[in-house]
Amino acid sequence: MAFEVKLETFDGPLHVLLELIQASHLPITEVSLGAVTEKYLEYMNSQDVPAEELADFLVVATKLLLLKSQAILPIEVEPEEDPSTLALQLRLYKEFVDASRTLEERFDSGAWSLARATPDIVRLELAEVVTNLSKNDLHDAFAGLLKRLEPFFRLQTAALERVISVKERLREIHDAILSRTKMTFRQIAQAGKSKVDVVVSFLALLELVKQRAVQVVQSGVFDEIEITRVD
Amino acid sequence: MVTTTIEAVLFAAAKPIKLSDLRKYLDVSEEVIREAVDDIAARFNVEASGIHLMEQNGAVQFVSNAGVGEAVAKFLKKEASGPLTRPSLETLTIIAYRGPITKPEIEMIRGVNCSLILRNLLIRGFILEEQDKERLQPVYSVSHEFLQAIGVNRLDALPDYEAFRTNEKVTELLSREPDTQEI
Amino acid sequence: MVTTTIEAVLFAAAKPIKLSDLRKYLDVSEEVIREAVDDIAARFNVEASGIHLMEQNGAVQFVSNAGVGEAVAKFLKKEASGPLTRPSLETLTIIAYRGPITKPEIEMIRGVNCSLILRNLLIRGFILEEQDKERLQPVYSVSHEFLQAIGVNRLDALPDYEAFRTNEKVTELLSREPDTQEI
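^ inputs. structure came back:
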């Protein structure tokens, strides 16, 4: 599976965020996070984020957008979605990233220890095969194994389905905005089923602004975002 | 005498042996085993000794001294294990410093789903998975093999080990975010 | 330093090493090697040590102290022949239904490193290891003695043998997984 290989080497959303902040020589604070929000969204748009990780990237995008302007997004902030958690999370993550450098150095240094190549047990020679297993135990164990593998098989199918839905959502929003001359972001966002949908909608909107297909006006901090088609 | 037997057993077995198995099969108390193991570690884990005692996950194993690791590997023509990707390395670091740790906790710190990385690290033998009876879900710890690959006999020999174990940011984050995003 | 390296090499090699090879490899004189080996013997060959140094025909080897040999054999036998754990049973089952099968294949199916489990199953005589000429690595099958012990004459007498052997999900898993050594 191609995407698995990719996933193994793909940096997670926090890593991307950390690099953006460090590249701007900023401390890890809420203000800095707000400042790199656009760059993070750009990264998401430009990189082929693996299906498996897209949802996690979107969760971070949600938090960033909440942080940057809670007024823009017409959704209630639940306590556990407190965006200031993101700065804390990132500061903690950085500690582990720093520690991983020490481990990497040790791993690469050649200073390993080795176990004894072969045990002496081979010389024990247990005289005969002794077991209280029955053939049914073997059967049940294999059946149990197949059952245990079920989620693993499902996981891979589900991941692909999710990508399709995200892509479809993007197109739907493009179409919705372009089919009318004027609408509000609230109207788009309310059609979404989840917070992830809202973020996808916002990403789609940013993309349209960038393409100069629409103009966006917001008259006051907590006012509606009005979207006008550019003809 | 118990100490001599333990030394001989660990030498012959050539793999990690659980302290609980030593206690059970040698039919002595936990204290006697602990004392003997500490005595062995104190005598063997010195710079001049070619053989060291490694302890992790409640199991002990004799390994060669990492300080002369390069020379030994060259003599035995042992090759280094393949490189680690950054995501794998990050995950291993979190498990080394905070293990035994659950998958949701690892994912909270990394901010990303870790199923596949955990599976690959399990296959590679760098981490172990165990069912935690209290938390009712699997927990992960680094294995003796990983400690061998980084050349430390015990996890608490890692820099800042204690600081990480008691890191209040982790505690705070775990309390703030009761359930990490399931995808 | 030379002494430490010799100790580590002899320990990890787990077989007799010629003094001449040590001399050549470490690039030191015969006298230095002699002195180091004598020093090691003097420290290890005492009653209380679980590990002894044996010298024979110009080669040296670490062995376990014969004085506790019986206790060691008893321990290892008990440790090796305890009840099968769930992971061991699962591995054995995969080998029964899908053998001859390689270690990487077993590990892909189970999602866990199986080195120690395979070692244990071999010691107990439940499975056999054979070199596969095409795949250029060992393959595992259950032993005839094991089949007899569970009252089966032929593999295909195992319940659901054909269905499990040809289960297409398992086959798919084996065919699509990337090389996990690449992490």
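Strands of chain C lie at 17-18, 51-56, 59-64, 101-102, 127-132, 137-142. Chain C has a mean pLDDT of 91.
thumbs up if we can close this ticket
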